Fold:
Amino acid sequence: MTSNAKIVLRKKPNKNGLYPLAIRISKNRQSNYHYIGHYIELEYWDEKNIRIRKSHPNAANLNNLLTKKLSEANKMLIDLQAEKQDLSANRIKVKLYKRSKTSSFSEIAKAFLDELEANKKLARYYADKVRVNHVLNFSKSNQLSFQEINEQFLRNFKTHLRTKGLSERSIVNNLVVIRTIYNRAIKLGIVDRKLYPFGSGGIQIKFPESQKTGLNKEELIALESVKGLTKNEIHARNIWLFSFYFAGIRVADVLKIRWSDISDNRLNYRMNKNSKLLSLKIPEKAFPILEQYAINKLEDNDFIFPEMKMVNLKASKDVFRKVNAATTMLNKYLARIAEKAKINKKVTMHIARHSFGNISEDKIPIKMLQKLYRHSSITTTINYQANFMHKDADDALDSVINF
Structure:
């Protein structure tokens, strides 16, 4: 009896109430199923026409995939029949699909994330893991192929993320991750470059301009001098000011500074983000802060601030979680300090860096700012500092309207 293949929707839902799509292989009234890896709601299945209804947000892509999978199955069945092999439905399925495995988006994404984790790029690992999950949740499949990720898929994905309340910057970050993983798939020969959905003629990725806001001089003086702070608030202010006094050292680096990093009234240490070596004179304003913590110093290798003292430094994930938890706590106290100091701006550890940029404006040569910020590229410094350099534009405006 001739074997045949047909697209079906299996009627046993998964834990999310979604139904799996499959290719049914039949022979001698016996059937076996090859699951495609995609799941849909029952209401989207058109049983009569054996296709996904147009009302499904990804109907066109999924129907194209189903047509392709069915065509591939029928072609392989013809090949088997030509070989005159009398096989059961199960053996036919095994022969059909043992040689048709391809790497899916989720597989290449996992390898990408594993690499980030192995290289201890944990901030990016956790952020990009969420973005990969956004893609898989949208496609409702762990077997999403790269051929399915076309321009229309990406446009629908962007719309989906907007309905979830993500900002335009977050949406762009999601697209960047997809592009990165897609490029890896091209290099591995998994997908043809001619199908690339980004760039000219496809989806253009443009980062929206963001407004960086720092404290001004008056607000900084208010922050330095505000009274009536609790012990925890004083500690949070100390760490914020220590960061600011050293041109906005990132909080993850501030918390990891040891007493051994200080010698000859200079701070010497290597940044975690880009391994840049930092050597700066300790400003006079920083010495009183150091004196407050010197009483707890047991040895030169001790951390200056207490947050990292009980952390297993050999466990990078433990260090990452501790820094995140400490940052959250510091930001909570900084919000209370801002209220007491009558500062209307949102004060967080991150804006210590913005505040240094805001006050420096165009007073410091850009090459020196690059050194202070520890940027690898001067272009990064120019783009960053452009957020705070308003004098020329203000003077130009005044020269026109003040008549």
Notes: Residues 105-195 form one domain. Residues 316-340 form the longest helix (25 residues).
